[in-house]
Amino acid sequence: DVKVTQSSRYLVKRTGEKVFLECVQDMDHENMFWYRQDPGLGLRLIYFSYDVKMKEKGDIPEGYSVSREKKERFSLILESASTNQTSMYLCASSLIGTFNEQYFGPGTRLTVT
Amino acid sequence: AQSVTQPDIHITVSEGASLELRCNYSYGATPYLFWYVQSPGQGLQLLLKYFSGDTLVQGIKGFEAEFKRSQSSFNLRKPSVHWSDAAEYFCAVGRMDSSYKLIFGSGTRLLVRP
After folding, report:
1. How far is B40 from chain A (nearest CA, A)?
2. Integer Cα distance of B104 and B9 in angstroms
3. What average pLDDT score do residues B44-70 get?
4. b/e per residue, A26-56, with b = 16+ CB within 10 A?
5. I need a labelling partner for A46 at 20 to 30 A (CA). Which of A2, A20, A38, B15 fits?
6. Would you tell me how many other CB atoms lie within 10 Å of the CB of residue B45?
7. Nearest chain B CA: its distance from A94 CA (Å)
8. For the sheet containing A4-6, what is the strand order?
9. Per-residue pLDDT tens digits for B56-65
């Protein structure tokens, strides 16, 4: 059974803190994604990685960075958390190829106070 | 710019009734179209996809969708809804400048009455 896991289901952080969200997939997928999910806005792509150490900005990269040191692990970093980054964060992975199915983790609900 | 519209924020149906969730997209060529479902507390799961060919696509869990180019629509249907179908449903289209990036609609939350 395919699996994408995220390090935390719920996280509460203070404004200005550095926040790390971790995602691990066990399917040997090349592609990994970080999305942000907000009510009424659907999912918006923050960053994408197609290989180790390779990354591309998505539609809303401001205030975020990513790291992919190993194929199975993709980290999202909030350098200095702000209240407008309170959201649900979803990680996904897929095989390389045209619009292959994306497999999603359960999400991390981040609250920044 | 490409976009996906799901005009219904919430839909409530009775268990056993039929279901249709609407999705409209803006795109100049033949799009790559997807429906994903998010059950409570879960990540998204792919229900079905359309790339080309037969415009009626069968998916998992008894769902189907029909691509209608003339209406720029890709509506999701199920003939008989089960209580376990209560979830949020997302329509998505593949971006024409990418082979992996999706544009998601805002979602439709399905409630099922017993």
Report:
1. 10
2. 14
3. 94
4. eeebbbbbbbbbeeeebbebbbbbeeeeebe
5. A2
6. 17
7. 9
8. A4-6, A19-25, A73-78, A64-70
9. 999 999 999 9
